[in-house]
Predict the structure.
Amino acid sequence: MALVNLESALRKAVFSLKKCSPGCGLEILSYKRNRGVSIWKCQDETYMLREHGYLEQRVEVEEGELTKILKAIMKREFPRSRKVRIYSLKDPSLVGIKRKIL
């Protein structure tokens, strides 16, 4: 996916994650691709979030908590951003691969 407005990125990410199968996920990166959050579906209603940027942490959440926690992480990682990049991940091993840095 290309650049997405930050206001609509949360809604699009949660919608895409609910439709994906276990083992797939998303990676949301800043414009410069130096900060972001990776989310992949572990089981039917369990997600693993990996934050990399200001904080380095991994969090396992249930589907009901996903929107709230993802909103807090996005606010922390992208404080002045207007646009973010969203990539689909077919396999958890693709998390954190080097992408072109501007």
Summary: The mean pLDDT is 87. Strands lie at 3-5, 25-29, 36-41, 46-52, 57-62, 83-89. The longest strand covers residues 46-52. Residues 3-91 form one domain.
